[in-house]
Amino acid sequence: MRMLLYGPAGTGKTTELLNQYIELKKAAPLRRDVYYLVPTSEHADRIMALALARINPLFSANITTLDKFLGGEKSLSDLEQRLILRKICEGLELEYFGEAQKSAVFYAGLAELLGELKRLCLGQSDLCAKLPNSAKARDLQKIFTEYAQYLRANGLQDREDVLAAYAAPPENCFIFIDGFTDYTPLQYAQLKKLCAGGHSVTAALTYTEEQKDFFAGPAAGVLQTFQSWGFALQKCQEYRRSAAADLKNFALHWGQKKEFTCQNIQILSAGNRGQEIELIARRIAAYKKENPRARWSDIAIIFRSIGAYQFLINEIFLKYQIPVEIHEGIEILQNPFCNLLLSLRDARDNEEVLLAVLKSAYSRAPLEKVRELEFRRAENPDIELEISAPELKNHIAQILDCSAKLRAARNFADLQEVWENFYADNNCAAELKKDLDNPALQTTVRHSNRAYKAMLDALTVLQHWQKKLKLKLSAEELWETFVSALTAKTASRGRNGEQVQVYDALSARQKDYSSVFLANLTLNSWPAGAAENFLLREYEKTSLGLARTEDKMRKEDLIFYQAFTRAAERVYLCFARSEAGGKPLLPSPYVSLLKKFFKNIPEETYSRSAVLDGAEPLCREEYAQSAIYRFCNQEHQSLAAARKSAREKDLECVLAILKQKNDPAQLHQFARTAETE
Fold first, then answer.
1. What confidence score (pLDDT) does residue 387 get?
2. Contact predicate 564/571, CB 8 Å
């Protein structure tokens, strides 16, 4: 049996697939011929949690990603691919890419392009036949030919080779495929083999003929392809996710030229990104206070890409005592401890870096002596460091020695030795242990132990392949290669489920929440700017049939649609009006489209003065700061100028007493009084 369930978001497609899967598992919990396949590990975790809530936990799950099912785990990593390509290019004379060979970015681009060509089932002959630039085509053909020969000679496979070699299970299986809006030609080829093998395959697709102009492109292509394979089509029409009329109208009619009344949608705008997260936190805290039985996990914040927002979310939500679970690791390069280790290389030539290392909690240098050194250097910049701070002589010498060794290193083992010695000779172990011992930090970004381990793991891989490939790298090439390898992300927080959920838009599919905050709705964030591979220009991609910018933008529309339709009760559209430095930010075009689709969407703008409008502060510390700010602003300048120092001392004293009493009502009254004096 082959069946494709299709319909708009919220019509129960995942529920139906999961019901069928669970019925089979209930009948025989240990049977291993039932599979539930999804796009990512996040999706697999979600489906597993839903399944565990309904059946015996001692069942054989087989809930996994499509690529893992097709055998994509036992393959070269991206880092290993780039190192092999570097070695291959060292032995080739390239007429077009001559100087580019020295850049780590070049090898990352090569690996990405190679994977894309394989996923689209394009061979080397296509490069020569279709690329307008013949010199570029010849270079790429040389590189990819040598790469394929190297893998064959060494018995290695990259991710796409493993997928291409997939053989369908011989026995008849029950397979459920969910969460996809599109498939690559390579995935299509393997799914076609699967469908031809007599297996029972049931798939779900977000698509409807009534919105065919909106769904034109990827989703329509999936429907046509599955239909050509003999899939029976079953339309899911009953909208189940929400009783809210406006959310239902969005799910069923988005993309059509219609206008509806808005009831459960609101725009939240703020001065900058920090204030945007502050506004979201206040709204969540107020909601929880009004609905004490509501669960934190019924609320989701969805970004197109989370990125550096992780730090803002954790800092601000911790202040409001809102538990949060961010479903994205953090790049090693963004971790403060790993950044400090990397900065050691610049300490010899940059005194600011040297002082920052000395002042850090990871150094054993006495902090008061470092501060004395800063004062002396400020008074007399020409005095030598050793003379101005004899007590710090050994600490300074150690850091400068590390810097010199990192600059001179020619192999990755040397880098590792320097950092391991610095770790052992300083307070690193004791300071990092605090992250593990303090329960309050379990959900924050302070994940330095994991980041440091990931950094050492990357060094181990680099050492292995440098020796195996006999790579000869200059000191600068070695450093660039190492830094480019630190793109891995670490899982950064413990999970208990009862937390506000934070996702990127791709990971948020197949999940339902009462309230959804669509955050960072700014131009170039929603929709995401199409990342271009510098090796091929747009017209060259068109010649090869690669995904063009226009195609990617169509997918972005569908990603926004799926993120918006996660809400059952309310949607908040959130954006900042400027960067931290003051550079203006424009709202996402989706905000303008929604204003046309819904009449009179209410908008709330965050400002410091608005903080005082509530009957009680949600965050006492921030509220106290606001009281001082309001008292000393322009309308009270004359009063403040008359007795500035005395008035500030009075304010600080009163605020300190109120905080000790823990009486927000008195603090609020104090702020009102200060306002009218």
1. 61
2. yes
Residue 647 pLDDT greater than 50, yes or no: no
Residue 641 has pLDDT above 60, yes or no: no
Give the separation between CA 113 and CA 126, rounded to whole angstroms: 13
CA atoms of 553 and 547, how far apart (whole Å): 10
User: How far is it, in rounded angstroms, from Cα 71 to Cα 459?
Assistant: 27
Question: pLDDT higher for 493 or 186?
Answer: 186
What token pair was written down for 406? 């990192």
Render the burial of 98-126: b for 16+ CB within 10 Å, e for the rest.
eebeeebebbbbbbbbbbbbbbbebebeb
CA distance 336 to 351: 19
Structure tokens at 448: 């330095």
Residues 366, 131: Cα–Cα separation, whole Å: 62
Q: State the greatest distance between any 2 C-alpha atoms of the chain, in Å, as a whole number.
A: 89
**Tokens 């002042």 — which residue?**
359
Structure-token match 């890419």, residue found: 97
Q: Which of 575, 499, 489, 503 has its CA nearest to residue 318?
A: 499
CB-based contact 324:443 (threshold 8 Å): yes
pLDDT, tens digit (0-9, with 9 covering 90-100), for 73-123:
578 888 888 889 888 888 888 888 876 666 778 888 888 888 888 887 777
Specify whether the CB–CB gap between 133 and 540 falls below 8 A: yes
Give the Cα separation of 161 and 155 in Å (integer).
11
Token readout for 55 is: 């059946």
In whole angstroms, what is the distance from residue 247 CA to residue 559 CA? 16
Angle, helices 104-119 vs 78-90, to 10°: value is 110
Q: Are strands 513-518 and 500-504 parallel, antiparallel or unpaired?
A: unpaired
Note the pLDDT of residue 630. Answer: 47
Enter the pTM of the model: 0.76
**Residue 608's closest CA among 632, 586, 625?**
625
Tell me the HSE value of 652 on the side-chain side, using a 13 A CA sphere.
6
CA 144/CA 118 separation, integer angstroms: 11
Neighbours of 614 (CB within 10 A): 12
Nearest to 597 by CA among 246, 162, 74: 246
Sign of the CA dihedral with 635 first, then 636, 639, and 642 last: negative
Instruction: Bin 417: left if φ > 0, else alpha if -120 < ψ < 50, else beta.
Output: alpha
Contacts of 275 (CB under 8 A, 6+ apart): 576, 606
Sign of CA dihedral 434, 440, 442, 443: negative
pLDDT at residue 492, as a whole number: 47
**pLDDT tens-digit series, residues 230-250:** 899 998 878 877 778 888 888
Q: For residue 34, which of 146, 149, 189, 202 has the smallest C-alpha distance?
A: 202
Query: Tens digit of pLDDT for each residue in 128-167?
Result: 777 888 888 888 888 888 998 999 898 888 888 887 777 7
Residue 205: phi and psi, rounded to 5, are: -150, 135
SS3 state at 263:
coil
**What's the pLDDT band for 619 if we cut at 50, 70, 90?**
very low
Burial of 421 (0-12, 13-18, 19+ CB in 10 A): middle
Please give the structure tokens belonging to residue 75. 């393959």
Considering only CA atoms, which of 232, 231, 157 is closest in space to residue 194?
A: 231
Which pair of tokens denotes residue 351? 């005194």
Nearest Cα to 240, choosing from 46, 5, 9, 571? 9
DSSP strand pairing (200-206 vs 174-177): parallel
Nearest partner of 266 among 249, 253, 279, judged by Cα: 279
Distance CA 23, CA 523 (A): 45
Closest to 399 in 3D by CA, of 433, 351, 454: 351
Which value, to the nearest 10 degrees, does the dihedral of the CA atoms of residues 10, 12, 17, 23 take? 140
DSSP secondary-structure letter at 232? E
